[in-house]
Amino acid sequence: MARLRKHRLVALACVAATAQARTLPEMAVSNEFVICAAPDDMPFSRRDGTPAGLYVDLGRLVASDLGLALGIRWIPRRELARRVGCDAIMGAAVVRAEDRPTSWRNVLTVPWMRAGAVVVDTGRGPAATLDTLRAGHVAVPSGSWAHRWLDAHGVPVWVRFRTDPEIIGAVVRGDADAGVVSDVAAGWYRQQAGAANLRVLDTLLDPAEFAFDVAIDLLDTDAATLARVNGIVRARLADGAIAAIGLRYGAYRPPAGQR
Description:
The protein is of the alpha/beta class and 259 residues long. The protein folds into two domains: 6-113 and 213-248, Periplasmic binding protein-like II (D-Maltodextrin-Binding Protein, domain 2); 116-210, 3-Layer(aba) Sandwich (D-Maltodextrin-Binding Protein, domain 2), CATH 3.40.190. 35% of the residues lie in helices and 22% in strands. It contains ten helices and twelve strands. The chain has helices at 6-15, 24-30, 54-65, 130-133, 145-152, 164-173, 183-193, 207-210, 223-238, 241-248; strands at 32-37, 40-41, 45-46, 69-74, 88-94, 106-108, 113-121, 138-139, 157-158, 178-182, 199-201, 211-219. Helix 5 links the parallel strand 8 and strand 9 (157-158). The chain starts with 5 loop residues before the first helix and ends in an 11-residue tail after the last helix. This is Transporter substrate-binding domain-containing protein. It comes from Massilia cellulosiltytica. Residues 1-21 form the signal peptide. Residues 32-253 form the Solute-binding protein family 3/N-terminal domain.
């Protein structure tokens, strides 16, 4: 995701190095449900502009249902979340669903969305195949599963582009022959800029390997807080509020699994 300027990161870390996540009674004291988000990573979040992003809108919905205001800590990487006192990260991949948390340090709620990675190109030529991709360069985030998978299949990659918007920009400009981005980011771009400049090739990557459910990651929480947020997610899935937020940003799929 997007990076903050270095001096902002240093200041943020120094000011809030001892901040801690909180349970519901502790949140109530400050009247805030605090999420961490990247400052420039649409369609997921942005510090300036409207709409504010999928994660911010979902955070605001959860905060409202908790009877709290929404607080946001802007961070470049989610590893910094504990240093700035975040209660939650709104988008975390569900790798393996667990009936009971083994630790309250990081606990995932029930999933609220299905997401995945797709290959995109400009659509100016025939649809890409793995063979044609081997003759070009595909932009992917460094160290990602897509990076490793394409390497293993003999596809040259470029890892100079770190975020979905950067990868899409590289593809549209012709700096990369194709890119691998989230389906949500591809949907957002096509909604904003039109579908003509970006083709989604959603059959090149196996959904079994590249699709996953997304949940809220609660930090240093407890059973009561988890149960309350799970109840909100289930209710808002049932009444369509979460789907409406997702579709506002160009794409939404309901989660495949429920707990």
